[in-house]
Structure formats: C-alpha cells, structure tokens
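Hi Y.,

Following your request, here is the sequence exactly as I used it, all 287 residues.
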Amino acid sequence: MRASRRFHVGAVAELLLGVPTVLSSLLFVAVLGRAVSQDEWWVFPVVWLVSGAIVFVPATDRVLAALVHRLRKPTRTESAALQPLLEDVCATAGVDPRRYWLRIQNSREINAMAVGGHVVGVSTAALGLPREQLEAVLAHEMGHHLAGHTMISLVRWWYELPARTVILVVVLAGAAVLKIGQVLGGTATVVSRVVVVALGIAAVLASPWLLLVPVIAPLVALTSRRAELHADRVAAELGYGPRLLEVLQRWIREGHDDIRARAGLRARMLASHPSCAQRITKLQRKG
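Below is the corresponding structure, written out as tokens. Let me know if you'd prefer a different format.
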C-alpha cells in the first residue's frame, strides 16, 4: 500500500504553537541588529529568517543526528541487517529509500527515532528485535517522515533557538547571582534575590511568551503524542500493525507503562509519547 506524503495536522499544530517563541526570537535578533547598526539593523532579522532554509539541506540532518542526538553511522554488519528492512518499508510506502539515512544510537533500551527529513535511527538494543518487529519499528519512524513531523519540529527548533538561548543565559545568570549571594551571606543574599527577580521581570518583558509556557508546553507535548499515534497508524496502514503491537506489548512487559504510571500528573502531561496501552488500543481499533 502506498502511503501518502502530506503534513499531518499535528505537525501544523506544533508549528503554530511555536509562533510566540519564534516572534520572541525575531525580537531578540532585531535588538541585536540595532545594537550593531542603527541604520541597517533590519538586515539581522532578515538574514535570520532566510537562514531557516538550512534545515532543508540534507547534510543538516546528519550533523544534528551526530551532535544533538548522538547517533553514529552503522557498521557494515549493522547496515547489512538494517538496509534491506528500510528498503522493504520504503518499497511498501512507495518512497525512494535513497532519501533516508540509517543511524545508530548506542543504548541498552529499545528505541528508534526520526530526525529532520532524512534520518532514521535505531538503538543497538533494537537491533536485537526479531526481523519483522524491527521492520515495523522502522515503518513507524517512516510514518513520522511521511507526515512531516520531524521536519516541522526541526524548523520550530531552529527559529526558537535565539529566544531559548537568551532565556538560558538569563537562567544561568540568575543561578550564579543566587549562588554568590548565598556564599557572601547577609545583605548580599537579599540583594541577589532582588537581582534575580529583576532578571525575571526583564526576561518576561523582553519575551512575553514566557507567560504562555505553562499552557504551550502541555499542548506541544499533546501534539507530540498525537504524532506518535499517527505514525503508528501509518505503520498499520502499510501492513505492520500486528508486528508493531508485538513491540508495544514487549515494552509493557518490560515495565514502560509502570514507570509512566508512577510519574506525577505534570510529568504525564508533558510526556512526548502516549502510553503503550493507549497505542495498543488505537492500533487494535485500526485493525
């Protein structure tokens, strides 16, 4: 069955939820431009907006896979085991396997991921799965690529980078000021707390999206969980539903859902993946 290539509504929703942060990034870049040049400050935000095209360069996926996700190239043996499975999935989906690159995550946990628009990664533990189950896992990751989930996430990540960098600097500065105040004690402690509050107020004034974080973060997590369910559905439509069910049932036996159940409400709301039980229920309904 040939899979359709179109952006899933969850990917579009994730992009829209990133708009406040992206606008904050635009503001920070514009402020930086004005600090450098009063007359040509507009060049900075324009160049930054155009720079987003870099995420569509295939080589970017490979760099981020290595630096951010710590994925490596497969060995000859690993490639011999994985490449035929990827080609089978791509043939079933009606896409060119040469568009995608396999990468390996050194991990004892069964895991897989899609990065950008071209990388499909699996953990070393996942390589121990039966051939049919491993192929189903690859089909799930292909579902993310076909729906545009990972590409949209990469675009959002890139354009949010300036705002997140500034906020990180503010947080680190606040932590350093508090530490200094604690070491000096006395009046310095009070002063450090005042400075931290001032930094917080300045951060909110410079980036009002911070006030929306308590609302946006759970919504972004929700779109991520919906994306996982959609990727499961794509894998099922390609004929990999029964084998994917076997993988999910294995995860339940290994206690994945038990760990999730012990987590607090906030952790569950911010979880990027739905429970295995929910994924199984959705797949069984699809079947």
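The mean pLDDT is 87.

Thanks again,
Q.
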